[in-house]
Amino acid sequence: MRFRLTRFLLPAFLFVLIAAAVIVPLALWSAHLTRAALTPVEAGVFSLQPEYLLGVVFPQSHGNPEVLTYLGIVPLILALIGVVTARRRVLFWVIAALIAGWYALGSNGLLWNALTQIAPVLLWFRVPSRAWLIVMLVIALLAGYGADRLKNRPLQIGVLIAVALELILTGRSWLEWRGADYWLPASQRALAEYLIADDVYRVYSPTYSLEQQVAEQYEIKLFYGVDPFQLRSYVGRIQHFSGVQSDSYSIIQPPLLGMLGDDLATANRDAHLNIVGGLEDPGVSHVIAAYPIEDSRLRLLDIVEGVYVYRNTSYRLEWVSDWRHWWYDDAPAYFGLLSALLTLIAGLTLLWGMWRAVRAKS
Length: 362
Description:
3 domains
């Protein structure tokens, strides 16, 4: 009994440590994040529709990875064999998969609605359909139990061939090779190089004219972008500067208001920039957009690859020395160190446990 309890406590301790590496810093940041104001409608985005469950056995052709439910025919068959032949050993995992699948229905199922009312903190974890990842992991585990029951060598080889054929036939519709020409197209490189040549410090674009991965490659700071975790003060400053006001949560700042379809060139056309100087200046040296912007403080430099490039004449480098405190907003700046420390402790504990297990077997 004591041995079984020890075997349970070590994984539980590791789970708490690894989870704490994320939960503790998140809790410290909680008062400063926009996620604290998420509504059930905003948090329940991409909830699985009941008809999506048909995708468990029928591969979906739509391109939204958040709602893909296909598990594979061969893994499902192996998982069923594992459930039938190892009933008591896998009962916990079967229940876990059923609960995760029910939760993934989000606002379309009773479980997520009830749990978010009981524990509103769950609203922080947007996109309930991501719980389907647990279902996938459990199916893989159960498939392992099923494969373990296949003692016949030719049968094992046949299963591997069947898995390979299924991946070839169904996986081709999900996979797409994207090389450097896709992530760093010539037009984006030309824009980034032009900005660097003009001593760019930070760029704002209402139309996301410089893609984030390109800015990262060229080490250009942005005053816009996609980030699911946002500080309220940071969002407030972006919306104040951009003139794009929205009370709803958005992973994109500034939000793409007024955009027609997927055409970024139509976004935020009615917004008016609020360019300020002094210590309130966010350090935007350049403004770029897919359309012309009328503002007396912006000087048009050129049109590069169809993008209007403006120099902010109000920008002064000496005004941005206090930018750092805007980002941290008095929140505990040591959260990264704390997260790394907890992860290190969990890793060392895991190595210690593995060493003990190897030593016990020898």
